[in-house]
Amino acid sequence: MSSSASVSGVLPPLTRPALIPHAHASFRAINRSKELWGIDSEKFKPERWVENHVPETVKSIPAVWSNMMSFLAGPHACIGYRIALLQMKSMLFTLVRDFEFELAISSEDIGRRKNIVGRPYVASDPGSGSQLPMLIQPCNVVV
Ligand code: HEM
């Protein structure tokens, strides 16, 4: 790697972090790219990662986890990703085992606020902030 980087002809030394204006990468765009993942890239399809079914096109993504940029890549990749995955898996397992979930509104009425972390909101009621109305009821557990 070179020890300097050019931005508009200026060469700042890379001994300090360089602020590059107007340069950003969208992790979501990479994670959902049809060119990389195929035409069903927006679909929830966990079997993509089973038995090495990931397309060749994503194998060059230098991500730390599952060819996705959610936890970034390289020296500043998330160091907490394993604990984050463990927490999400154990929480989802407990919730899905004990409760049934159903949307309380039409899926067409759900919008996504683009922020550092994307959040859902009700498109017909944007002033009420981030929310995802759901009907949640306990599963009928047979003992
Ligand atoms: C779903 C949960 C999480 C996501 C999506 C996530 C994502 C990320 C991303 C994208 C970065 C890179 C940020 C950047 O350099 O621009 C990062 C960095 C980092 N994450 Fe996470 N993270 C999660 C949970 C956690 C947890 C649970 C911990 C700690 C227990 C953690 C600790 C860190 C640390 C210390 C860095 C900075 C690493 C560095 O700059 O060297 N993260 N994370």
From TrEMBL:
Coiled coil: none
InterPro entries per the UniProt record, alphabetical: Cyt_P450 (IPR001128), Cyt_P450_sf (IPR036396)
Name of a matching Pfam family: p450
Key words, A-Z: Iron, Metal-binding, Oxidoreductase
Transmembrane segments: none
UniProt-listed Gene3D superfamilies: Cytochrome P450
Presence of keyword rRNA processing: no
Domain of life where this protein originates: Eukaryota
Similarity comment: Belongs to the cytochrome P450 family.
PANTHER family documented for this protein: CYTOCHROME P450
Stated name of the protein: Cytochrome P450
